[in-house]
C-alpha cells in the first residue's frame, strides 16, 4: 500500500470522494496529479469501506476536474505543459470508461444506465481530447472502442457498430504502419481483430445475421494469430475471452 493511499484512505472512508480530494489538495500544483494517479489505481484494486462503482466514478471525475483546472491555468503561458495536463485527464477518462464497461471476464459487478451513460460521456471526452492532442491510431482505437461498448450496453447497436467500425479502421491503420495485414486474419494486429469482432457483435445485436459470421471470423483469426505470432498469444487469448464474454452478455442465444 502506497504512502499516498494510506494517507487518503481514512479520509475517503469517512468523508467520501470529497474527503479524499481535500487531502489531495493539500499538495500544491501539478505534483498532486501524481497522488491522484496512485489513489485512482488503489481505489480500484484495494478493498476499502464504501467502495463501489459510484464512488470510483466520483473520484475519477474529481481527479479529471483537478487536472483540467491546472490545464486551464497553464494554457496561456505554457501550451506544452497544458497539453501534458490535458493528456492526464484524457488517460483517466479512458480508464474510467473502461472501468465502467461491461465486457471484462470475471467482472460481475452490476451496472445501471447511470454507469453506462457516465462511461459513454468519458469516452466522448477521450475522443475530443485525443483530437485536440493529435493522437495516433492506437489511442483513437481505444477511445472509439470505449464509446462503442457503452452504446452497445445502452441498447444502441447501430451507433455501437459505427463506433466499433471506427475503432477497427484505426486498428487497420496501425496494422499498415507495422507492415501487418489489414484483413481479418492471423497476420493482422490485436486492435483490428478485436474491434472488428465487436462490430460483428453490434451488428448481430441489431438483428443482422452477418454479424455473427464476422464475430466467428475474428475468433478464428485470433486463434491463427496465436500460432503465427507466438509472442502475441496471450493478447490473442484475452481478445477471444473478451469477445466471447461480450457476445454472451449482449447476444444471449450466442454460442460463442
Give the arrangement of secondary structure elements:
Blueprint: H1 3-24, H2 31-45, H3 53-74, H4 79-100, H5 113-132, H6 137-153, H7 157-177, H8 190-205, H9 210-228, H10 233-250
Helix pairs in contact: 1-2, 1-3, 2-3, 3-4, 4-5, 4-6, 5-6, 6-7, 6-8, 7-8, 8-9, 8-10, 9-10
Care to describe what's here?
This protein is mostly helical. It folds into 2 domains: 1-135; 137-256, no CATH class. Helices cover 75% and strands 0% of the residues. It contains 10 helices and no strands. The longest helix is centred in the first third of the chain and has 22 residues, at 3-24. The model has no long low-confidence stretch (mean pLDDT 94).
Could you provide a short overview of the structure?
This protein is mostly helical. 75% of the residues lie in helices and 0% in strands. The protein folds into 2 domains: 1-135; 137-256, no CATH class.
Amino acid at each position: 500500500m502506497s504512502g499516498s493511499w494510506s494517507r487518503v484512505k481514512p479520509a475517503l472512508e469517512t468523508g467520501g470522494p470529497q474527503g479524499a480530494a481535500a487531502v489531495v489538495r493539500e499538495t500544491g500544483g501539478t505534483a498532486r496529479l501524481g497522488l491522484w494517479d496512485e489513489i485512482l489505481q488503489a481505489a480500484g484494486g484495494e478493498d476499502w469501506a464504501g467502495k463501489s462503482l459510484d464512488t470510483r466514478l466520483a473520484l475519477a471525475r474529481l481527479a479529471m476536474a483537478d487536472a483540467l483546472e491546472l490545464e486551464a491555468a497553464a494554457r496561456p503561458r505554457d501550451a506544452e505543459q497544458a497539453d501534458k495536463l490535458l493528456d492526464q485527464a484524457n488517460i483517466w477518462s479512458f480508464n474510467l470508461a473502461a472501468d465502467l464497461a461491461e465486457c471484462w471476464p470475471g467482472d460481475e459487478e452490476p451496472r445501471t444506465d447511470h454507469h453506462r451513460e457516465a462511461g459513454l460521456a468519458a469516452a466522448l471526452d477521450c475522443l475530443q481530447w485525443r483530437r485536440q492532442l493529435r493522437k495516433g491510431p492506437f489511442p483513437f482505437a481505444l477511445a472509439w472502442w470505449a464509446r462503442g461498448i457503452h452504446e452497445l450496453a445502452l441498447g444502441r447497436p447501430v451507433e455501437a457498430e459505427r463506433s466499433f467500425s471506427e475503432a477497427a479502421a484505426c486498428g487497420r491503420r496501425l496494422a499498415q504502419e507495422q507492415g501487418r495485414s489489414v484483413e481479418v486474419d492471423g497476420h493482422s494486429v490485436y486492435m483490428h481483430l478485436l474491434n472488428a469482432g465487436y462490430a460483428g457483435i453490434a451488428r448481430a445485436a441489431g438483428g443482422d445475421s452477418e454479424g455473427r459470421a464476422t464475430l466467428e471470423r475474428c475468433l478464428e483469426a485470433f486463434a491463427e494469430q496465436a500460432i503465427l505470432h507466438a509472442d502475441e498469444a496471450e493478447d490473442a487469448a484475452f481478445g477471444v475471452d473478451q469477445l466471447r464474454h461480450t457476445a454472451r452478455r449482449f447476444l444471449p442465444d450466442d454460442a460463442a
